[in-house]
Amino acid sequence: MLAWLLPLAGCVVISVLRLKLSRLSAVPGWIGTGSLLVAFCLSLISAGVWLMTSPAETAAFQASSVSDVAAHETGNLLQRRLVGHWYSLAKFGEIDFPLGYAIDALTVLMFVLVTMISLAVHAYSLVYMADEQTESYQDHHLDHSAGETSERPGRFAHFYAALGLFTFAMLGIVLAHGLLQIFIFWELVGFSSYLLIGFYHERRTARLASMKAFLMNRVGDVGFVLGMTILLATCGTLLLYPVHDLNGTSASSVPMALPEAFQAAVEKAVPSQAIHDQANLIPTEQGISYALLVAAGLGLLAGCVGKSAQFPLHPWLADAMEGPTPVSALVHSATMVAAGVYLAARIAPLLLPEALLLLAYMGVVTLLLGASMAIVARDLKLVLAHSTISQLGLMLLGIGVGAWEAAIFHLITHAFFKSLLFLGAGSVIHTTHHEQDLEKLGGLRAHLPLTSLTMLIGVIALSGLAVPYVTIFGESLGFSGFHSKDAIVSGTMAFVLKNPHHILLLISVLLGACLTAAYSLRLWFKLFARDTPVDPALQQVHEGPWLMTWPLVVLAFFAAFCALGGEEGFVSTLVEESLSPAPAWFSDSTGEVVSIQWTNASDRHAVHGTAGAMALAAAWLGALIAWALYGLQAISSKDLSHQLTPLVRLASHRWYFDTLYRGLLVLPILNLARHTAWIDRILIDPFIDGCARLSERVSHASQWFDEAMINRFFDNMASSVWASGLSLRKAQTGHIRQYVLLATMAVIVLFLILFAWMPGDRAGR
Predict the structure, then answer these.
(1) Beta-bridge partners for 138
(2) CA–CA distance, 471 with 565 (Å, rounded to integer)
(3) Fewest C-beta in 10 Å: which of 105, 464, 612, 650?
(4) Torsion 482-484-485-490 (CA) sign
(5) Residues in CB range of 316: below 8 A, 6 or more apart
């Protein structure tokens, strides 16, 4: 709780103090860094307590409780997880919307990971963002021809406040125990990323990039909301876990968790021949439509696809490089894009075969698209951005083939080496005065030896390279990326062996491994391989201060060794302990539309050696190609690009997805808006203006009628009443004799009137 709330506390304190502190002050940065340091220490303490309370090697434990017996009956062992509620947002009958927490080994591991990388980014930014501590910041990347002004006040405090809010939101996703709570922090992550990507909002490109990220994420979030709505209607809950303590005792007052309720719904699903019957798209007496349950999974996956920048919602991630480089390191490693993969792995038991198969193919498409764009990109940060897109596709491929433990394993290793590479790129950009063009950089190894070495470790980890026939702890000698990629390739191969008609998945993942090694080594060779810098002005560059270098060293250590032992190692064991295994019905299910045989852990272990050898061979092939092209320069990269001009043009223009979306979505909407504005200007505005003028004239006529007729009539009536009153006033003399005489005369007059008109026979009177 404290580790989660401390980044928010730092954000609030910075927001309050920034109104009183000078822009020249570094206090906001130290407050943000200090809050993350304490949060990281608390996360480490929590991890230690967790591991001492329950040994990490145990994937599940036995408990003498009713809930454990029920778990065995459904094929799932009760996992070591501490779940509880804080309070209820709302309750409608049996449907409850509580806020609470779910803590297991993966939660603790993710807390350590997120706080560590965020702490490194906070400390690194004390130097990288130091130029924001000024009253007149000069932005040299602005387009002056567009009227953008280069001088503005610094926003050092604003940066650290948004960074703390971003970290708090990601930790909220990790801690949440239900889909509704995840969605709340999911949206907060999107809002925080909007602030950070558009940090340099004076630049038109930054404004467009932040808006693009925000809108594309909203597209996926619509599917997320629809998926939650279907699950709530069919299962009656959005809780992912039942509430129980560490002894396995469940709380009797808490409704069934979502996976069990979903399993019951699947068992009652209508037959496949009735899927296309519209009447069966709602719950019936016979059960729930299978198509509706598939739609629920696809809706949740739409949110994951948007947040993790998967095809076809991937273009926003490359444009997100408009934010500061430390933000890119955090967004592309431990937060935001990681949230989509994390959620997909958590909800994997809720995904039916059709949804998982679609996810697998979307993953391989994204893997190859990202790799192809990275291998031709000239911008330093764009290479890493496209690399992130590619690696996220690899993770979702792992989830799609049923190896979601391997996907989370790769998510953790990717967080370390990708944050290392982004911070290393930031070190290069900072020392070279914001130069990012790879064709202008080069030969920096002698001037930036520490950055060169740490980025080489990150590149090797990203490439998945290892030393053949040399083992340590029973696994090939390689850095973290090799072990986690090996696990995903093993899962893909096991899946393909059971489903040979999906051989394209295995071919694609091996091709992706080759391309990944090629563009990774290309990046390093272009930055550091030359003996002297391409630009003579770069001869004077040197390493940055220790606040920029020690995060590189720490992250390089974990990028190299966090996955020791491979799938039998410490990190992988913690992941396997936490993620829900496939339900009993899943292993035998063939789906209603597709026929799939799913794999299990034993299948993946059986092909582990073969899959690892094939992945390693593909990676070394890509590395040798990069070495020949950019290291030895034995082959001219320009000649090769000329031979492959059509492909290079497509990849350089990001496969024209931006052009496609602009033509299909943006321009039609702009044209519709333009025609609507024309109708408003030509038709509606004149009509409204005419009505206004008519109303004005009617009001003038009404005013004349009111003044000339109505007011004069009532004024004359009032004058007449006043005059009559004055005349009658004279009759009031005050003499009693006069009043008696008038009364007598009145009585006589009344008597005469009555006598004259009294009915009767006049002859008999």
Answers:
(1) 151
(2) 10
(3) 650
(4) positive
(5) 209, 212, 213, 216, 217, 309
Residue identified by tokens 């350089």 is: 652
Q: What is the pLDDT of residues 700-731, one digit of tens each?
A: 777 777 777 788 888 888 888 888 887 777 77
pTM for this predicted structure:
0.84
User: Is residue 296 within 8 Å of 355, Cβ to Cβ?
Assistant: no
Closest CA to 269 of 286, 251, 253: 286
Residue 372 in tokens: 């192809």
User: Would you state the structure tokens that stand for residue 408, as one six-digit string?
Assistant: 């989370």
**DSSP secondary structure letters along 262-316:** HHHHHHTPPPGGGTT-GGGGS--SS---HHHHHHHHHHHHHHHHHHTT-TTS-HH
The tens digit of pLDDT for each residue in 618-657 reads 999 999 999 998 888 877 777 777 788 888 889 888 888 9
% of the chain surpassing 90 pLDDT = 36
Cα–Cα distance measured from residue 641 to residue 646, given in angstroms and rounded to the nearest whole number: 9
Residues in Cβ contact with 206 at an 8 Å cutoff, skipping those fewer than 6 apart:
197, 198, 199, 200, 322, 323
CA separation for the pair 417, 113 (Å, rounded):
12
Q: Which residues contact 433 (CB under 8 A, 6 or more apart)?
A: none
Alpha-helix runs per DSSP H in 129-203: 156-175, 179-197
Q: What does the alpha-carbon distance between residue 234 and residue 288 come to, in Å, rounded to a whole number? A: 7
C-alpha 583: how far from chain center: 28
The end-to-end CA distance of the chain, in Å, is: 115
Structure tokens at 656: 């024209």
99 sits in which H/E element: strand 95-103
- Give me 515's structure tokens: 């391309």
